[in-house]
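Ticket #4471: structure output looks truncated?

Reporter: J.K.
Steps to reproduce: submitted the chain below (364 residues) through the standard prediction queue, then opened the result file.
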Amino acid sequence: MKLLAAFILVLLILLSACFSYAHLKIYQHRFEQSLMSEGTRALRSNPELSQVSLSFQGLDARLSGFVSHPRFRLEAQEKIHALAGARALTSWNQIRVSPVLRLDPQSAGGYRVSGWMPSDLWRDRVAALLATCAPRQVFDVTAIQVDPTVLDPAYLDQASLPSLLGSFFASVSQGALVLEPNRLALSGTVRTETEKLALHSLAQRSMPGPGNPVVENNIVLAAGADQRGRGQAWVGAGIPGLDLGRALRSFPIFFDSGSTVLKPEEAAKVDQVVAAIRQLAPQGKFVVTGFSDSSGAASVNQRLSLGRAEAVAALMVARGLPRGQLELRSVIEKLSAAQNKNPDARRRSRRVEVTAKDNASRIP
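Returned output as attached by the reporter:
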């Protein structure tokens, strides 16, 4: 009887311990959830911390994500550490800082270069790049600060960046430039619309990174500038006897198979088309014709050809041409058996052509 009583007592103690443990875990989970909610609200109170993520292991907070300045990294940690019951350990702060590069003109001439780089080596690379792109300019890079939590500035390795910087320093007056992993902002004044468009095109090619890179073109035309860009000729405009029809035919815009997405190198052709129109027929009407080959379902080919025309027209409008000057058409191009076996012939059928409306009847 005593053994049974002892067994029951031990069983009750174990059940009580299990119940207490379960109750503790439930309470702890609810407390962590409460900390998560409070911590998230605290972080979101500062827009600069919108890309910071928070998680808890027990009461210890783990921070990750990205900020634009090292001080925001510390601010995020302090906000969480201020919550009752939370611990934000420095060793668990995995927030990284975005590499930022700013170029601002100085009143005495030259540029002040500021921002954040991960090491002295990267700062030296910035100085060398700028000196190569604009050897006659003076750049003060002492304001670039170094912090080991800054990500590597991969945008400095883009092949088109030196061309952009060289054009920027050569054509923009009192210009400022900001480079971030997914953002490039330009400001200042230029002499012609063509220069502005060319810089915008170069900027887009210099920002092919992940996500949705943003190009902010805040460049304006100087007072009295030629709005149509006659001060600087587009490539080919200096050829004697070159008319608008020949100019437009020299820029067929090609697409990948089954795609309606403009590739960067083809988007640059759209800039040239727009520049030619602005110089040779700024008030003209134009037909944007999308082509596809005849292989596959006719409905799919119709969608592809029209989608390609829409993609090119949208970019032309974004470059400043009124939508009312453009008419869209689609063509399914029938290839011969020999052409279907020729990869280059199939590639040429995946294109968009821009023609003056008077000549559009020539399109098959």
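Triage note (M.O.): checked the attachment and the full token line is present. The CA atoms of residues 113 and 142 lie 7 Å apart.
Status: closed, working as intended.
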